[in-house]
Write a structure and sequence with these properties.
This protein has 354 residues and is an alpha/beta fold. It contains 13 helices and 10 strands.
Length: 354
Amino acid sequence: MGRLLTRLGIFAAALSLVLSGCASAAPQAPATVHRIVAVGDLHGDFAAWRAITKAAGLTDSRGRWTGGETVLVQTGDVVDRGPDGLKIINDLMRLQREAEHAHGRVVALVGNHEAMNVTGDLRYVSAADFAAYANGNSERLRQQTYEANKTRLEAAFRQKDPAMTSEAIKAAWLMATPLGALEHQAAWSPAGRIGRWVISNPAVALIDGNLFVHGGIGPVYAHVALDEINRRVAAALAARAMAPDAIINDPSGPLWYRGLVMQEKEGSEPSTPPPSSVVDQLEEVLPAVGAKRMIIGHTPILSGIAVLEDGRLVRIDTGISSVFDGKLTYLEILDGKLLPYVVARPDPARREAR
């Protein structure tokens, strides 16, 4: 019911959208890349993001690109939970342009939380994140949206509670639709500024033998061409696909897969077929896609970056966001050598003073 009301209240406000079936190809990079820097899930922690890019020599004190020809890969989930997802997105958009001018590259992968925002699953959007989209016209837009959709909204609420008055329904909808929420979903729609950007980004990227993907590639997608994976993800995002087996929702898909880091407990009812061992999966997947290793985020490992299976699997979601209070980390791949780094977390008092 809550999901239905969210869609009625927010999406009904949007203008008719023309969904394009644009597809993202895996980013093309030179056969050999001197330096790659990979950063895992950020979940709305802008201060941590800036601390990492500065420590890695990618940006200056103002956040401008100083990485030269470095390839920066961010493996998705920059939004939700924390307050500053919009700031990070704006940074990534700008850095993509600046890096290109310096003959570098910024690759922003699609994570499951980017897909959730595009498809209207807003369970993890923080109040502060909604507020970042608000402007001086937000209250008027919210009132106008309610009046324009009042009949449908009242019908939806009364399916659950026939005794609700019009006043109670409006109050409930306003509470569920904070200022900035309508603007947020307009921006994240497939025709919106952020939605178009997410759709244009890849879900998988193979760079100098390193396969970057948010959740992972397991046996189900091992023999699907990377360009085809990116095409399917882009098409599903553009269509706001809700089917459980759509590639952006599939537990075995590249945005959600955990079979490389979590095994089913003995005696439990598996939600997906029990995965083969991590070693067996890597031996099947890596040769199939032409990679020597896979670098993933999605599942936090608070102890720090983990280089596993003789360097064939690297986990870089270290709970960077202060929501998790993990370690601020980045992975440098320098002429093929894996170099994990830990960065000091910015002092909250100093952040507040800025």
